[in-house]
Write the structure tokens for this entry.
Amino acid sequence: MARCIFHIDLDAFFVSVEQAMNPGLRDKPVIVGGDPERRGVVASASYEARPLGIHAGMPLSSARRLCPRAIFIQANLPRYRDASTKFMEILADFSPCMEPLGLDEAYLDVTGYEEPYGSAQKLALAIKERVHKELKLTASVGIATCKVVAKIASDLGKPDGLLEVAPGEERDFLSPLPVAKLPGVGKKTEQALEHMGVTTVGELASLPLEVIKESFGRFGIAIHSHASGIDNRRVEAPGEPKSISQQITFARDTLDHQFLEANLRGLCQKVGKELSYRNKRAKCVTVRLRYADFKAITRQLTLEEPLASNQLISITALQLLNKALAQSTKPARLIGVRVSNLVGEQRQLRMFNSRARKLEQLEGAVELIRRKYGPTAIKTGKI
């Protein structure tokens, strides 16, 4: 039996949630992201705004220039998380084989579960109906025998669409599409493929595997298979996070080293708190800077001993920041920190209590004080 995979994606999610809460926003150009007078980017744009060239990730100031009459709304993440939870609960009622992707989309393996409905399309319509009835949101659904084709189908069906690719028709469906439609093919990969004379998915599928492997390695093998409609990945529940990150975009570009360091320390404390909550340690620390020209750099360090101490994370991150600042004098608009290569609490104990262990014990005591007397009861000074 061929697999039956759904990719279900809520349309213009953040905006649609706001429109569900306030029907007066419907059929109007709405942009979620914040005040266009301040620094920030578009998080979501309604379909009325998109024909003007407005898209996620665009600076809010640019969006306002393109559409002065647009309604700008500050993002409300708790509201969106609540809607996402209800959305996932609806999907779980139709199949236990679900793989969420962020807040607003998921894969669903409905193989065998479509039989009571008569067909996969009727099952998809039942899902769309419940989402609309209970959440006042619209969803687009792609149906195929594998994940990559189902995702492309749902994207092509937006908004409020339903597109099924029958078994055996995957390659014919994909062949005429621009190669950028393949998940994972960004601008750089698209340009590299164009230099090779490849502009469509079909042309990519027709390339000898050795050629694409030589140019792109393992990634090339994957997109070559996907271009042929071959994707054996299973629909799986998400596992443990592979990294934890925090970042902040500044209201104004800055070269103030003390300001950058202060913000980085604050981000490191948040990352350290999340590590502690998950009972994890990190073996790699990465600092990211994005400049006024939107170019970004990253600096990272892999550690001999995994750590969870806020202070040690900060020390490592500040060292990386100083290296980055020494190599560039451009004003920064964003700074971020990420810890990765996460491991559990188990580790080799040392005969003598290490500095890292003492710092973790100290930070644990500080956290207990804050929980009892409030977050401002005790503060850390500059390292």
User: Anything to note?
Assistant: Residues 243-373 form a domain with the Dna Ligase; domain 1 fold (CATH 3.30.1490.100).
